[in-house]
């Protein structure tokens, strides 16, 4: 009998990475000003070697606007969708995700409070904001799960989602209130409700990269445990998974990663919900394949969503959350209907 | 190998079972019987660490509170009545998860071949070869239960705990499941604790039986000693013997 492999194969990696890189190149080339592909290469080599092969205007667009933005979009999309995949596995619930569970808005509230009350660490601008976003993200998750558990010990899909949605609305109200009073100090409300990648810098991309490597790495290491949880918490316990430990590890990691993305890109909804679901249809529910596939799928999706946000009504730039929520909510409803009809929502 | 002392389980302060004592030795098949709500499932949930409890539960003389999750899985494996599967894992992937406690980190991991052999052996034992690549979502109730049983065989614990595993299944699956488990349980060093509703199953397979009612042990001993006409009448509030005879006489 042929040996079975559960993990992602080299050819899978090649395909997914190629698609993602193609999306990246497309996103760098297209926009309010289109630049030819060869200029990307020239701009990068100019910057490294100090030559002048690329027109100065194109080099400025590529190096200080598009490239950092594309890096941030790819990393944010990857982070959000790997988080969504982990939550859906952990809670055995295809509708779980940072935004449906209220973690995202909780993290946004943390970031806003930090900005409003000046809780930045002096040497590391943004880190206080990031820490608060992570902390509030985690606290929201704990609060929602506790409330849901009190109502319904089996932690059923409907209870968690209902409480998550109510919690999100509640937190959004507080966010809007704080933003209204905080005025200039907090970037505009749209950033916190719809997200934006317009302020992307290489520094942001660097922070995201570190967060994705560290937290994404932890989630990836938990792939086997996530498989066990996805089949059922009782089953996970039976086969020897330390249920409490891994639940905590995964929840903390997911909240931290969502916290970082929110503090950099605002709240971008539905990526974490939709991408893992679509990916699951393609590569199956095994997290050893699902997590890497979601990673690249999420980055490709957010790159294209950002491209759409920049180009559909150009020169007007739409908030990226408008695009993701538009696609996301339609897919969300589709999932809900079809899983209900099959009888395992 | 299993030693339960003064086991009490409470829900919101109200005891579901109280002061339960029993032991299970190698090659025992202990049946736990009693009316609905007597606390049968609560006892097995405590043994498998799925609920908080008071008292002491020892496996081979060691307190299960001090046994790590991974080790615990090699001592005890549980087969539940229902499985709420949401995702389309394949039967093979499910069975492979049974080897979780053996995989460990890459330093202590067993050889791939050994792992693969253990998985294939479990698949062969349960006759799941043809369903190996099927999604769990497409299986019938009986097939699903057999897939989870195969996972347990791959896990290869010392003791199997069964919580009414065949209640909702067609007779053919009930027969298959119990025959498979009987064969497994005859290997040296294995034992079974099973919650059953059907007293016929207790009589047919149980080497020992524990009769419980309202959270307390009414009787514990060999199956013949425990399931007497008088005791059953008291616990079930009806003449169980006459009823069973009446039912079975229809077949003669």
What would you say about this model in short?
The complex is a heterodimer of chains A (345) and B (252). Chain A contains 14 helices and no strands. Chain A has 345 residues and is an all-alpha fold.
What does this protein look like?
The complex is a heterodimer of chains A (345) and B (252). By secondary structure, chain A is mainly α. In chain A, 75% of the residues lie in helices and 0% in strands. Chain B is α/β, with parallel strands linked by helices and 252 residues long. Helices cover 39% and strands 24% of the residues of chain B. In chain B, the strands form two sheets. Chain B has a six-stranded mixed β-sheet with strand order 6-7-8-3-9-10, sandwiched between helices. In chain B, helix 6 runs parallel beside helix 7. Chain B is globular and about 55 Å long. The interface between A and B is medium-sized, with 30 and 39 residues.
Helix content of chain A: over 70%
The value of Rg of chain B in angstroms is 19 Å
Low-pLDDT stretches of chain A are none
Secondary-structure-derived class of chain B:
alpha/beta
Question: What is the H/E order of chain B?
Answer: EEEHEEHEHHHHEHEHEEHHH
The structural class of chain A is: mainly alpha
Strand content of chain B: 15-25%
Number of strands of chain B: 10
Counted beta strands of chain A: 0
Please state how the strands of the largest beta sheet of chain B are arranged side by side.
Answer: 6-7-8-3-9-10
**Number of DSSP helical runs of chain A:** 14
Q: Mind summarizing the main beta sheet of chain B?
A: 6 strands, mixed
Q: What is the CATH topology classification name of the domain at 2-81 and 157-249 in chain B? A: Rossmann fold
Beta-strand fraction estimate of chain A: under 5%
Order of helices and strands of chain A: HHHHHHHHHHHHHH
